[in-house]
Amino acid sequence: MWGTSLRSSLAVGPRGPNVFPEYQKRLSKSKKTSFVHCQKSGSPVTKTCALIVNSSSSLTTDLMVKDRVPYNTSSPGISKDEDGIGIVKFLRGTNFFVTGATGFLAKVLIEKLLRTQPDTGKIYVLIRAKSKDAALKRLRNEIINTEVFKCFQQIHGKSYEAFMISKLILVVGNICDSNLGMDESCMSIIAKDVDVIVNSAANTNFHERYDVAVDINTVGPGRVMAFAKKCKKLKLFLQFSTTYVNGQRQGQIMERPFINGEGINVENVVNRNSPSTAALSAKAFDPKQVSQKMKELGLQRARIYGWQDTYMFTKAMGEMLLSSVRGDVPVVILRPSVIESTYREPFPGWIEGNRTMDPVVTYYGKGLPPVFPVDPNGVLDIFVSHIPVDMVVNAIIAVMAMHGTLGKSEISVYQIASSVVNPLVYGAFTKCPCLDAHGRPIKSHIRREITSHINSSRMPSPNGKHSGAVDKFVRKAMEQAKHLASVYEPYCFYGGRFDNSNTSSLLASMSKEEQQTFYLDVGNIDWTDYICNVHIPGLRTHVMKGRRQSS
Prior knowledge:
It is built from 22 helices and 13 strands. With 551 residues, the protein is α/β, with parallel strands linked by helices.
């Protein structure tokens, strides 16, 4: 039963999520480390515990003070010279190991690496599949033949696929498996060759099952780190995260790593009245209810300890785990805010799938949401001040070059966000509404329908019946608005502002040529121009495929 698995694998201490203290020993001693595995059906099979209650864990009294001051040890500490960081030089001959390689971010990263420095070494791409043939098919369909590489295809012409196959080394595996699903011989070969590991694999569903999210977002990075410790010449481990792992912290949030067992909402943790994991596991649920109960448990746990949802909570615990088990492996944690379409390269507006803000943009463009709850004076990181994916990729490459060259055994954090350096509040968005095909400001048509619906309820129609079409339309629109509001409410009223001092120092260390090639200054983004002339057209072209959607 799921309760038994939960009891042995997903327990949380009274002060915060605490990574199992013996975890590092288990990673180093066992060839096949036992974890909570995701089966093909998505159900968990527990072999041993990854997280455990630790009643002795405690939060330091100055924890909240630390949120307001810089974390000094993570500053780059490299002076600028004429050559800057030496990014292109660093990339030459460097071999990479990339998880989550078929994802939105990883594709843009691979494209930029190969286009900027064709002499980049091998890029090992970890792809989950049932067989090598299936993995090769995914490599071609989800990386090589995707739109984002079209400029690269034009450069190489007929030799494009041969070049890509020579650079991208397919590795069949899964971060939910011990040894990442690789056999010993394969792992040994790669471990001798890799210089930089980029872990971008994640489950980004805000309300995922707790066990599934922990397996991928929390324990997954630990499995990748176990592999990293076997890499003979590793220069850097880069963990891709998000600014929102900072949970419900308020004020200016500095770039610092988490402490193992750290919680945010101390008062709620101490005085919580919610059921314990053991109490939940003792209940008998119908198998059909298990998935929903696990989703509810994840959201409940997240909010007890001060996080908005299961995704952010499990990603934060993943950072804690890395900090605990890394040993002397150099680690950089990159935390962008919400990632959206390309700003400039390889061409403006490229996007794959509906990203975080796009459901709201789509409904707004159709005039569907009657209302949407938001702080009028709030900074809309999740809707407006998001970060173009190519700027995030440029930051990744610059960070890899800087810390890969320094070779220091430290853990550093970089936040890529605009809420401090280039904020945009909701009021500015309403002053410049999007325009329809006729150049008219888009208004919420549902207001008129709601008014007529209310009027019709007061004054019956001649036949004594309401309009069924109006009723159906209003109910659908209201349900959509309620769903979006419930998902985004923690972010629409978010009181945190993400400091990016380390990222600013990184930019200052780059030469003028590097700043142009690897542009990452979010302070220069004209948000109105980007959203109206780049992102929304890109959304229509690459996601909606140019089709018009009727309201």
